[in-house]
Amino acid sequence: MENIIPAITYIMALLLRVETLDIRRRGGQLKITGTLLTVSGAVLLILYKGPMLDFLWFSKGVKQQAGSLGQSSNGGDPTSLMWIRGMIMLIGSTTCWSGFLILQSNTLESYPAELTITSLVCLMGAAASGAVAFLVERGNTEIWVIGWDMRLFTVVYSGIICTGVSYYVLGMVMKEKGPVFASAFSPLCTIITSLMSSIFLSETISLGMTIGAFIMIGGLYFLLWGKTKEELKFSQAAAVEASVITCDQVPNAEFEQENNYKSGSLPMESSYV
User: Of 27, 64, 67, 111, which cross-links 230 as Cys (Cβ 3.0–4.6 Å)?
Assistant: First the structure.
């Protein structure tokens, strides 16, 4: 569901007037096309599986074993209460993340300090996560013990790279390009994760996942194309307006200087022979 974050962010930005949309221009049409393609690719990736694909690094025995595990794990009733509850929680999570992007972009306009905001976000997130873990795992002290193993590496990597560096770079991008541009790259996380898990963990990749990934990449391209065309249009309009203001100010300045000479408020330049 995190693949529809760009679409939710774009809709929320339009409702909050953070983004503008002109359907008559090419930039607005490209942004709408990219949003629809991103949502279509995400829906196709979720609903359609299709046959499993063969890769050079994927052995046949491991593929059959992983396919049997995938079939056994998908054997439950999709209309069960837990499935519906999970979908509602995922939709709420993606909506909250889109709202966080817009809120952080608005905060950076009045307080342009990416490092300080990143530190505050990480501090509040650590406090909230610690409180939730303490309430859920009451009496279980083993979860707080971290040894010199993969758990320590996971915590350090997740805290430094996935949280600290990621939020800092995200703040820099949103400060320059806005929340819609920053959220447009969220579907790439699913695509890169699927590819790396197939290479290192021998997980299967279905045909539907591949087609959905290509559709989402196409939607990302159209969305960024439309965003770039709108920014180019705004920059050209600003340059034309600035040139018009400059041309209007030059005759006015010369006229005021001539009037000052005539009134005697400024001394005339003396000529020497």
Answer: 27
